[in-house]
Every structure is written in structure tokens, then in C-alpha cells.
Amino acid sequence: GDVAVLVPAAGAGVRLGPGAPKALRPLAGEPLLVHAVRRIAAAPSVHTIVVAAPAADVGAVRQLLAPVAPVAVVAGGAERQASVAAALAAVPAGPEIVLVHDAARALTPPELVESVAEAVRAGHDAVVPVLPVVDTIKEVGAGEVVLGTVDRSALRAVQTPQGFRRSVLAAAHEAAGDPLTDDAGLVEKLGVPVVCVPGSEYALKVTRPFDLALAEHLLAIGA
Ligand code: CTP
Ligand code: MG
């Protein structure tokens, strides 16, 4: 394998409601992070996995993942971007392709990890998996009054894993300013082209209780 995968898993999961940090909450009896790491490790290109865990749970996460796959675990930061930066700093010399993958996208198929890695290998510096937007999107102003309708055909919903030539991701994080919600956004600011590849509905981000229920159902039917 020539790929390192960084797994930001240090978020609280506020939108999921009260409880443990989201990556440690159970999905069909196992933490979301275990499901995510198992699928990442099943991708043949993957050489190294670095997890950014909640600072208080680094030891527990090491123990949790030891039987799942060989992983390094570091303490994450207050924002996702800081968690990714901490994981990136822990990647050993070797892998020249780095993927960043949310622990919360626990059911992401190994095939998506492979297809993103392959697109980077084929020469793209930055690659994001996307789905078309299905809802009509409106811009709203004060008082929830509609200002206009956005042309949906030009929009994409962006998932992870996002894939990068290692030097490009490192430069993007070095140049980073205010925290963004994804890594491709940092690369865009460098002026480096970001290319879309087809995403997967199974790569949904478990964010709200409804998503957890959906993920439980998808697992029950074989995801
Ligand atoms: N993440 C992280 N460090 C942070 C915040 C988020 O590593 N300081 C990770 C989360 O663990 C998750 C991914 O980034 O795997 C995507 O973030 P999100 O879905 O927003 O998760 P949370 O921040 O945990 O959820 P919420 O925003 O509802 O609190
Ligand atoms: Mg968050």
C-alpha cells in the first residue's frame, strides 16, 4: 500500500444528542470508529492509519482498535482541522498519498477508499467523492425569507475520504487560516484544482439520531 488514511474522530457529536464522543457511540453494538477503521483497513492500498481521538480517550481508543487493525492514535484538537493536522504530523515517511476520512462515515465501503486513492495515483492532486444534490436549494435571508433558488445542477454534496498528494495536503494545512469543515477547502485556497469522483450513499455522515437509525438498518441488511 502507498496510502495513509487520517481519521478525524475527536468530535463531541453534539448534533447526535447527549452521550459519549460520537466516534465512540455504538452502532449495532460496536463504536462507529470500529466500523470505520475496519472498512478502511480492508482497502488494499492502505498502508498506514492514523486516528485523531478525543484527548481524554487516546488510551482507550488504542485498546479498542488494537484487535481491528494496526493504527496510530493521536490526540485531536478543538476543531476538525486541528485534529487532521495532528494526525498528518504523525504519518511516517513513505506514503505519498494521504486520505482524510471522517470516523462518522462509518459504513463507507473499502471500494470508495480505493477509487479515491486511485484517482490521486492517476495524477490528481486533490480528489473528493461527491453525490448530486437531490433537494431544491434556496438561499434565505433575515426572517427566513427566500432570496432565491440556487441552480442545483451545479451543486455537489461532498463526502470523505478526500484524497491528496501528500505534499499538497501538507502545504494546505501549513497555509491554513480559519477552520474549514473539509480539507479540500484548504487546498482550494492554494489554487490547486480539486477533482470530483462518484461518492457512495453508504458514506453518509452519521450526524443526527436519524442517521444512526439509518446506519443501523443498512448494517442489518448487509452494509
Ligand atoms: N472531528 C474531529 N475533531 C473535532 C471535530 C470533529 O476529529 N474537533 C471529527 C469527528 O469526530 C467526525 C468528523 O470530524 O468524525 C466530522 O465531524 P462532525 O460530523 O461534525 O462530528 P462532530 O464534530 O463530532 O459532531 P457535532 O458537530 O454534531 O458535534
Ligand atoms: Mg462537528
Automatic annotation (TrEMBL):
Q: Which Pfam families match?
A: IspD
Q: Which domain of life is it from?
A: Bacteria
Query: What InterPro entries does this protein map onto?
Result: IspD, IspD/TarI, IspD/TarI_cytidylyltransf_bact, ISPD_synthase_CS, Nucleotide-diphossugar_trans
Respond yes or no to whether keyword Nuclease is given for this record: no
Classification via Gene3D superfamilies = Spore Coat Polysaccharide Biosynthesis Protein SpsA, Chain A (3.90.550.10)
Q: Where is this site: Transition state stabilizer?
A: 15, 22
What EC number is given for this enzyme? 2.7.7.60
- A GO molecular-function term, please? 2-C-methyl-D-erythritol 4-phosphate cytidylyltransferase activity
Which positions does the site annotation Positions MEP for the nucleophilic attack cover?
A: 152, 205
Q: Name one GO biological process term.
A: isopentenyl diphosphate biosynthetic process, methylerythritol 4-phosphate pathway
Give the first-level EC class, as a single word. Answer: transferase
Q: Which PROSITE patterns match?
A: ISPD (PS01295)
Is Secreted among the key words of this record? no
Q: Which reaction does it catalyse?
A: 2-C-methyl-D-erythritol 4-phosphate + CTP + H(+) = 4-CDP-2-C-methyl-D-erythritol + diphosphate
Keywords associated with the record: Isoprene biosynthesis, Nucleotidyltransferase, Transferase
Q: In which pathway does it act?
A: Isoprenoid biosynthesis; isopentenyl diphosphate biosynthesis via DXP pathway; isopentenyl diphosphate from 1-deoxy-D-xylulose 5-phosphate: step 2/6
State the protein's purpose.
Catalyzes the formation of 4-diphosphocytidyl-2-C-methyl-D-erythritol from CTP and 2-C-methyl-D-erythritol 4-phosphate (MEP).
By sequence similarity, the record places it as follows: Belongs to the IspD/TarI cytidylyltransferase family. IspD subfamily.
Q: Under which name does UniProt file this protein? A: 2-C-methyl-D-erythritol 4-phosphate cytidylyltransferase
Which organism is this protein's natural source?
A: Micromonospora eburnea
